Amino acid sequence: MKRFFIATVALFAAVALQAQDALLEKYTEMGDVNTVYVSKGLLDQVPIDQFDVPGLKDVVSRIEHMTILVSRGEEAGKKMGNKLPKQLKRLGFEEKLNTMHEKQNIRILQSAKDPTCVVLVVYEKPQATVVSMKGNFEGGFEGLIPTED
Prior knowledge:
The chain has 4 helices and 6 strands. By secondary structure, the protein is α+β, with helices and mostly antiparallel strands. Strands 1-2-6-5-4-3 form a 6-stranded antiparallel sheet.
């Protein structure tokens, strides 16, 4: 019975990941979106110490790989900034952070089924940036993104 339960959980996690990937692929195919895949090996080559961002080294060390989508047009930006978070929630993602910082709406969503899957959405009209990450995010996100005082 225990094996059946573990197999079922693994199956649902795989289905959730495929749904997330399919959703992001849909945005990539819109035409007004630039997409880049970043592997762990490439991340390890970035000189993190040169950036003056508190907690950045810790966050980067947790990431196995990520896909970055950046809108080029206003329509794509609006869809990625407003529509995508709602679609992710319907796929079982929970909003861990939603804040405004320097006119940017910053959202962090994490899969309830697979906590290693995290999506960061940064929206400042008319542009949106989405970073889909896979990694160890057990430590949470508090303190990683500054908030307006």
